[in-house]
């Protein structure tokens, strides 16, 4: 993006931007204006930027440990393993973190209406079902921030209500922050700040 395109951004070209635990942030912009890029910079999956990102005032970080203990991410393209089942995709994350019990995982699956798809291969799911799997997987780890990249784009209002309540509950239990991207204003969470890219 050119300097003109980002001149009015609340993040790009700003001297300092701080996200605090326990607060909810909406990052809003049109398609192609860097919403996913911002989350990828924070997650450490892209370093194609100028500037510095620090976590709890530390710039020297172990990215793998950060992703295991501090940052969870619901990717816009899900990043699921197509040849594995719904349940296998979810427990892959939980096996690394041991964050949720079997009963808690089953409860997530049931609450989001995926119990009949539990053993189905992800490649045979609809986009909305894949998105729900990605949300459950992201909740199966500890986090200080959960990054949500247009996380409800394929969900109906009922599932949006259920999924957002699960995410908010998990964030509250861990005193964690929510960073969510969207094309426009959304009202699924009580946002402490709206950031325009």
UniProtKB/TrEMBL annotation:
Alphabetically ordered keywords of this record: ATP-binding, Nucleotide-binding, Transport
Any Pfam family matching the protein: ABC_tran
Record has ATP-binding as a keyword: yes
Start and end residues of each ABC transporter domain: 1-197
Protein name listed in UniProt: Putative ABC transport system ATP-binding protein
Claim: Transport is one of the keywords in the record: yes
SUPFAM superfamilies (UniProt xref): P-loop containing nucleoside triphosphate hydrolases
Molecular function (Gene Ontology), one example: ATP binding
InterPro entries: ABC_SmlMolc_Importer, ABC_transporter-like_ATP-bd, ABC_transporter-like_CS, P-loop_NTPase
Organism of provenance: Bizionia paragorgiae
């Amino acid at each position: 993006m050119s300097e003109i395109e980002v001149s009015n951004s609340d993040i790009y070209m700003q001297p300092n931007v701080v996200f605090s635990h326990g607060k909810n942030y909406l990052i809003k912009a049109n398609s192609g204006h860097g919403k996913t890029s911002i989350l990828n910079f924070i997650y450490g999956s892209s370093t194609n930027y100028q500037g510095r990102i620090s976590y709890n005032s530390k710039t020297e970080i172990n990215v793998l440990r950060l992703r295991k203990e501090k940052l969870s991410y619901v990717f816009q393209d899900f990043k699921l393993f197509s040849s594995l089942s719904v349940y296998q995709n979810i427990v892959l994350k939980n096996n690394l973190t041991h964050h949720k019990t079997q009963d808690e995982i089953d409860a997530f699956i049931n609450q989001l209406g995926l119990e009949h798809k539990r053993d189905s291969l992800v490649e045979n799911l609809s986009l909305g079902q894949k998105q729900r799997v990605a949300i459950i997987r992201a909740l199966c780890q500890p986090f200080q921030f959960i990054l949500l990249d247009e996380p409800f784009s394929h969900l109906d209002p009922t599932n949006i209500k259920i999924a957002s309540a699960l995410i908010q509950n998990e964030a509250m239990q861990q005193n964690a922050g929510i960073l969510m991207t969207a094309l426009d204003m959304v009202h699924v969470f009580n946002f402490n700040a709206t950031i325009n890219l």
